[in-house]
Amino acid sequence: MTEHPGYRPNGPTDETGQPPPPLPAYVPPSSPSPVPEADAELRARAAKSLADRKDFTVHLTVYWVVMTFLVVIWLVTAGWGSYFWPIWPMLGWGLGLVLHGLSLTWDQEPTEDQIEAEARRIAQKRGQLPPGSTPRD
């Protein structure tokens, strides 16, 4: 067999004829899991979020059923052209329903500054720190 220029029968070598050192083993990064299913804390928060949405859906469904029932009572007892009294429970309960819906968007983690300020406030309230000092002093 004819040898070609650049042909190396035993693989690549350096100038001394030695093979190059082996590549280091791959070490994965130590950051949080890139797969959300593997992160227990993330799964717990997702489960809570889904349960909160389900609770809101149940709340909304009950609201519509009860309000429909009240309007039917109004129609049967007083009818069109009379005082529409179901508006008051609609507005009162509706306000609670709107606040419940908005609360689903309030799921924000506190910042470190907020946690530190709250810890400082509690410590001052207990008399453990003089007013105006910080826990680091």
Strand elements, count:
0
- Unreliable runs: none
Instruction: State the assembly state of the protein chains.
Output: single chain
Distance between the termini: 81 Å
Alpha carbon gyration radius: 34 Å
The helix tally amounts to 3
Description:
The protein is an all-alpha fold. It has three helices and no strands. The radius of gyration is 34 Å and the shape is elongated.
List keywords for this structure.
elongated; 0% strand; single chain; 137 residues; mainly alpha
SSE diagram, text form:
Layout: H1 40-77, H2 87-103, H3 112-126
Gist?
The protein has 137 residues and is mainly alpha-helical.
